[in-house]
């Protein structure tokens, strides 16, 4: 089970805790759902992802993954894969080594099982021909596929993606958008996807979470947010002009 529940989550930064990055956010995300987080720069999207990932501890509130509190789960039990905008691959390792590294570190699989899993994932991601290449020999889109492949090869419960396509050109973004949606449909992994791109927000997710200044503005299907924005902010940010 990989439902995710945020219960009045607040995160403050600074010596005097004067920066409120996330302000009393509560959310229920269902197992297998694809939820897109949108909002202007500084609205708390990345901080929220880092809290769900257990990389940052909230100042107040609880985060559950399934029935467990995220802060009580070790990294392995959390079983979360992340893809960020700067998806640094190891430059001196081949694609295969990049993809198998995490598996070797964190699982008890045999060499043969790891190789099998890496090969089948690479084929699914259409990078099967590139396993012996190093990242420097790949295009931006191929590198991004490797980053995605490296994340999903572990067969995670939860996928966190923080603006994973923002370094790609428009054409490649369109391709990768479709790719990520197809992948998520096939795997049924609960996915939290951060973007500031309007098209990604409107087309990719089951539901949209709109944030501004750390506060939840609206959660709903893209069409609900578009046609029935909860407030002026949502209307201005994604809603239809009325
Ligand atoms: P977004 O991803 O939506 O652009 P962030 O979550 O990165 O927003 O940031 C939300 C707010 O929290 C911003 O005001 C940012 O400056 C602040 N912030 C984020 N991380 C830190 C940190 N480690 N220390 C201090 N302030 C931070
Ligand atoms: Mg961010």
From TrEMBL:
It is a peripheral membrane protein. Part of the ABC transporter complex XacGHIJK involved in the uptake of xylose and arabinose. Responsible for energy coupling to the transport system. It is found in: Cell membrane. The chain holds residues 1 to 242 of 390 of the full protein. The complex is composed of two ATP-binding proteins (XacJ and XacK), two transmembrane proteins (XacH and XacI) and a solute-binding protein (XacG). Belongs to the ABC transporter superfamily. Carbohydrate uptake transporter-1 (CUT1) (TC 3.A.1.1) family. This is ABC-type D-xylose/L-arabinose transporter. GO terms for cellular component: plasma membrane; transmembrane transporter complex. Residues 4-238 form the ABC transporter domain. The lineage of its organism: Archaea, Methanobacteriati, Methanobacteriota, Stenosarchaea group, Halobacteria. It is an enzyme of class 7 (translocase). It catalyses: L-arabinose(out) + ATP + H2O = L-arabinose(in) + ADP + phosphate + H(+); D-xylose(out) + ATP + H2O = D-xylose(in) + ADP + phosphate + H(+).
């Amino acid at each position: 089970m990989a439902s995710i529940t945020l219960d009045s989550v607040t995160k403050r930064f600074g010596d005097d805790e004067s920066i409120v990055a996330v302000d009393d956010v509560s959310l229920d995300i269902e197992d297998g759902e694809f939820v897109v987080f949108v909002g202007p720069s500084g609205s708390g999207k990345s901080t929220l992802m880092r809290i769900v990932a257990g990389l940052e501890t909230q100042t107040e509130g609880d985060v559950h993954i399934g029935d467990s509190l995220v802060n009580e789960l070790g990294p392995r039990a959390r079983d979360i894969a992340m893809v960020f905008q700067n998806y640094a691959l190891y430059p001196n390792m081949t694609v295969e080594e990049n993809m198998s590294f995490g598996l070797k570190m964190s699982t008890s699989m045999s060499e043969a099982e790891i190789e099998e899993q890496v090969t089948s994932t690479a084929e699914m991601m259409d990078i099967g021909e590139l396993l012996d290449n190093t990242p420097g020999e790949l295009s931006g889109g191929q590198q991004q596929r490797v980053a995605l492949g490296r994340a999903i090869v572990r067969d995670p419960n939860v996928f966190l993606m923080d603006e994973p396509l923002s370094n790609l050109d428009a054409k490649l973004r369109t391709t990768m958008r479709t790719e990520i949606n197809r992948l998520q449909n096939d795997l049924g992994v609960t996915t939290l996807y951060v973007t500031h791109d309007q098209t990604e927000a409107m087309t990719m997710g089951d539901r949209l979470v709109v944030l501004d200044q750390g506060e939840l503005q609206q959660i709903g299907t893209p069409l609900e947010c578009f046609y029935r924005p909860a407030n002026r902010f949502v209307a201005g940010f994604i809603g239809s002009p009325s």
